[in-house]
Amino acid sequence: MANLQRISPCLWFDDQAEDAARFYTGIFPRSRITTVTRYSEVGTEIHGRPPGSVMVVAFELDGQPFTALNGGPLFKFNEAVSLQVHCEDQREIDHYWEKLSAGGDPRAQQCGWLKDRYGLSWQVVPREMDAMFGDSQSPGAKRAMAAMLKMKKLDLAELRRAHAGAA
Hints:
alpha/beta, elongated, four-stranded mixed beta sheet
């Protein structure tokens, strides 16, 4: 029997759930669509969706379960919730930034944050970020923060230089 994760995100889309799931699973390793559930004629007067259209897409990103729901235009994503991608190195930062930001709003890019083509917010950050900023009062953390505030996509080498106090 499969071991289901107790808590997993459900993402509300107007009608792009399947397209978004395919987009995301094409970016991350160990990713796949696991189930596509369709609306039936039951409840059409409530949900307004044509029978046979996609209702829910279950998918995994790097082994993490997600659900995408085609719930209609009532709700939109906003910056109050974002998904973090913890990266090992600049190569990974560049890869995820390029893929996730493609077609997104360039005005919504700051300090490693971006919005993708569906309006979902992501943070593409180095794994060592917590260690770098752990002591917010340290001179290194302050220098790294000042450097980061000038960036859109994070430059790990520049953050390390700033943290170390190198020119």
